[in-house]
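Worked example

This section walks through a single chain of length 936. The input is the sequence exactly as stored; nothing has been trimmed or padded.
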Amino acid sequence: MGRFAGMRGLGWAWPQVALVVGLILASGGVVTLWTASLRRQVGRRTQALQRDREDLSAIIHSIPDPLIEISASGEILAIHSAQRGLFHLPENPDVRPHLEDVLSPAAATTMLQALALADASVDGRSPRRQIEMAKPGGVNWFELSIARKEQENRNDPRYLMLCRDITERKGYEAGILRLNQLYATLSACNKVVARVRDPSEMLAQICRLAVTSGEMRLAWVGMIEPSSRRIRPAAWFGDDSAYLDGLEISLDPEDPKGQGPFASALRDNHPFWISDFMTDSSCVPWHERARPYGWGAAAFLPLHRDGVVIGGLGIYANETDRFDVKSQQLLLDLVGGIDVALDRLSLEATREALEDAVKVSEEKFREITESTHEVIWSLDPETLRYLYVSPSVLRLQGFTVEEVMARPFGEAFGGEAAERLKGQISQDLAQFSAGLRSSDVVSIDEAELLCKDGSRVWTESVSKMVRNKRTDRVELHGVTRDITERKFAKEQIERLAYFDPLTGLANRTLLQDRIRHGLDLARRSNLPLALLVLDLDNFKQVNDNLGHAIGDRVLLEMAKRLKANLADGDTLAHTSGDEFVVVLPDSDTTATLAMTERLRNSVAKAFSLGAEPLFLTASVGIANFPDDGITPEQLMGNANMALHQAKLAGRNGLQFFTPSVQETSIRALRLTNALHQAIQRGELRVEYQAQLDLSSNLIFGAEALIRWTHPDLGPVLPSEFIPLAEMCGLIFPVSQWVMCCALRDAHCWTDMGSTLLTVSVNISAAQFDHGDLIQMVIEQLQAEGFPPDRLELELTESVTLTDPEKALAQMEQIYAHGIRLAIDDFGTGYSSLSYLKRIRAHRLKIDQSFIRDLVASEDDRAIVVTIINLARSMGMRTLAEGVETLEQLALLRALGCDEIQGYLLSRPLPQMAFLEFLKTPVPFTLLEANSVEQIA
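Given that input, the structure is written out below as tokens.
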């Protein structure tokens, strides 16, 4: 009120004062109200700002890529995102890490370069950059966006960097790039497929493109080898090509090297995709080989030609999972193109080969038709005019092609032949037109053609009816050849079919007819008939030593001599090299024997072939009708049996067929067959007969004698089976077996303390003629380690008969090796003293035939004395065989014989019995022998 009273003192009335006071009071309320309102507005604005801040924070934190605030120097100030991305920040929030502390050097460098560009730019931005970072799950790619942060303090600029993970996008881009590369590769390969004509070159270029354009590590093509069923590299390219060196892949599913992806793709005809070659279990056999290359994905696709798998394409990439679905489809398109190209090239090669074949065929046809002696022709069967005649007609008839084609058909043949051929052609044409004759039916005609010079030539025409596909006209095509010589040869062949070409005598075929004819006459007339088989003894030696030309001369002369002794009704045939057969109709035994002797005497006459005459003998086997056979086969078989017996008896003789001959022949055949297995069956054995030195009364050696016990026939004498072994060629293995046994057993004699005894082994004439004898003996000596000077080879005098010089040369070689030689059965053969003096033999063995009657026979004593003196004069020792009595022993000692062998001393003994015999003293003493000698 005091304040209001003051107002009144100013002259204000109470109403005025009241108004003023009211105004003051009213204004205070307004202020209060405004303040409250302002506070409410600020609160609402603050709440809005908070909501905006929260929304902004939510937005920033919802961004999948980290938003990073960094300084210009690269310090990380803040990360305004829940996604830390590629940063690994320290746990201490007060530490501000640098980009180089949390990133790889390359990534940090890239970011700092981006900061520098943003700092230098007007708008504070830098171009986007991409960095690659290794993360635990693999390599990640990030894209960086940097902008300067707007703030009042421009002296401390800050930057916001958005790091976007673009790994998936990079993978997609890489896939697109790979597809583009494969598309480009496929395009380039298609060009190669379309351009290159050589399959090998095409495959090589495709391998090169797969590596250079498709960015593969290795590409190669393997082709299947049909014989081995293995895959052989045929084309390849890439720095890893060394992988293929010595690579083995099989198509055999049982083979471990045939269970891999390449073989499976080819075997199953289905592509095989490998995500990681170095971890795939199907590639285990090749992991070690592929380790230096470290491949990722691989693909194996089969290649085809004409729908058949012929090989495959193998591709190796650097990355794993390299071939997605689209990549696989592109590679399938690639091999599909290769298959098409291979089919095309195969067809082109076939077409070119056919074209070449056609050209060659045309050239050959032209060459043949122009150069052959045969005339090729075609004829119109209706008009009988030639449509074509080859130039060779000029050589055949002397007419030119034009002259032949201008002449009527019948003029070449003459009357009757022309009409016959015309009628035949007309008939064939009618049948062909009616469908009763095909082009496969061939006609062959022989006819005489008239030549231009008036001569005639025999020809053969081979022809057939054909329908010309181009003109639909029926034509007669044929070939005519000159058969004049063939006609003559045919006559000769017919002669050769029945006659021996060398001697002109009947051959085996004509002989059979003559025997049948002779037997028919003999049956009707009730007359005998004789069949003789005559064999020249040792004729093979004539061919071997004098040559076949001389042998043929001898056979011709022999045929003349034999024929000269026969009557007109007799048949003489030459059936083999040294064999003649004689058929004697109406010949009894007496007449047959007389004729046989005449034939043998004619054979025995000397043959004048040069400086020295040649003497031969003959063995003859005889069979008579009807006693010895009633068919040609029976007579020939029985005559051959008789011949065989004559040969076994020593040759140069004759033998009529008898049942005993048949038995002997059958036995000989049985023994010959059994002898083939006698060694394997252990049926042969070797026995030893001791040999005594008469001066010392000591055993100095033994002769090895072969023995054979047949399981059914019992003991077989050597005199029976040795000739059989010589005839069938078994003498060589048998003699080798005896040599081996004798050398091995003789070793035992020394091992038991005996003196160095000599072992004697018989060598037959047949074996001595064999060129490998000396080599065989040396090899046996070396194999057994036996001294050569303790081996003695016993040879008969007959070894010098065939080829004396060759025999003497072989004896010289035996002597040169230190092997001893003995002449066995001396005095029984046909020896020559001129050759005997040149033989370096150590001893002569006197045959037991001279010892048997030595005591009673003065002739035998005279022969023995002669042999002893002869041997002594040539420096040889003498050994008497077959000594059985003390009287024989005493007389031999008195006559000066050096050594003996026989039952008086010991029978032939098996090895164990012979060893026991060596331990016992000689069964007689020198004193006993001397007393008997005095009596004698």
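What to look for: The first strand starts at residue 67 and ends at 71.
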